[in-house]
Amino acid sequence: ESQLNPNYNFENFLEGDSNRLARNAGIAVANKPGGTSFNPLLIFGGVGLGKTHLAHAIGVDIKDKYPEKTVLYISAEKFTQQYIDSVKKNNRNDFIHFYQIIDVLIIDDVQFFSGKSGTQDVFFHIFNHLHQNGKQVILTSDKAPVDMQDIEQRLLSRFKWGLSAELQTPDFETRVSILKNKLYRDGVEMPEDIIEYVAKNIKTNVRELEGAIISLIAQSSFNRKEITLSLAKDIVEKFVKNTKREVSIDYIQKVVSDYFQMDVSTLQSKTRKRHIVQARQLAMFFAKKYTKASLASIGSQIGKRDHATVLHACKTVDNLSSTDKQFRKYVEDLAKKLSL
Ligand code: ADP
Ligand code: MG
Questions:
Q1: How far apart are CA 111 and CA 102, in angstroms?
Q2: Which one is the CATH code of 172-242: 1.10.8.60, 3.40.50.1370, 1.20.140.10, 2.60.120.260?
Q3: pLDDT tens for residues 97-109?
Q4: Which of 98, 220, 241, 310 is a good FRET partner for 41, with 20 to 30 A between their CA atoms?
Q5: How far is CA 270 from CA 54, 165, 303, 307, in A?
Q6: Residue 186's Cα: distance from chain center in Å?
Q7: Residue 10: band (very low, low, confident or very high) from pLDDT cuts 50, 70, 90
Q8: Model confidence band, residue 245 (pLDDT cutoffs 50, 70, 90)
Q9: Ligand 1 atom with least separation from CA of 142
Q10: What is the CATH number of domain 249-338?
Q11: Which ligand 1 atom is at minimum distance from the Cα of 13?
């Protein structure tokens, strides 16, 4: 059992600037599993941007072209659970052996391995064995390797052996073509201006885009109403309100470090360089403002600081934004980016 979902394939994974590199790398890997330098292929990006879809598509295509190869898709969570069970049942070696004879191993959401040293250790050995034998490994993650936390260095360095390809938020044109393709496959007709209205206003990720269009279709058919622009406006408005994104501390750190053009790891580092300290303080300030996390929890997630440091950061940001014009601009820009 490969656990692959045939509905997630390349044909319905629409190409755009936001995913071209990852999609093409996926196609290259599917043509020659284990035979390219993209090994492992690591696909990373935010929630709802197509990581799981693309990972399946690669597996499905390999199975098509090479029916004799064993391909296995598994979430990192399930892999971890299986490993824990195997230890309890005293058959850790069977577990390892099972994975070592697979030709193409696809593990989804490897950020789940964070802090789980037993699982990381066993995966490290499986990975080495597969890699040495020319087998293909495909991984997905919600973060780039440089930004992954609590993953052993030796594993991170393996992740970087191949190619890390990012899935970004799709641009307007890509959102329109994803919507059109979905409507076409579902046999639903919709006026162009409505499609464009939805694509213009739902820009966070593909999952939400699909969710909005599904609820639009459902509303119109339940109420026997025609799909009009005003119905679309109602639904999109409600949709945007209801899915007001739960901003995570990870997300805040990513936005702040992107804004200052640094890595998240730099933002979290121990350095006292002024611009890095400021970026870190801003991340703490927004984490306090936009999440329900405690000061202690914010501190531990932003570079392992204590609650007093976070409190100090919040006060500093308050002070600086009333005295320093440039700094106030940072706060305003970031607030805008975070309240998308
Ligand atoms: P992730 O694993 O990154 O959270 P998913 O792979 O679950 O995201 O994708 C969310 C939804 O968006 C799925 O229904 C998927 O089919 C769809 N999707 C994502 N990217 C594309 C794309 N480029 N073309 C078509 N559908 C897409
Ligand atoms: Mg996923």
A1: 22
A2: 1.10.8.60
A3: 999 999 999 999 9
A4: 98
A5: 37, 28, 8, 16
A6: 26
A7: very high
A8: low
A9: 3
A10: 1.10.1750.10
A11: 24
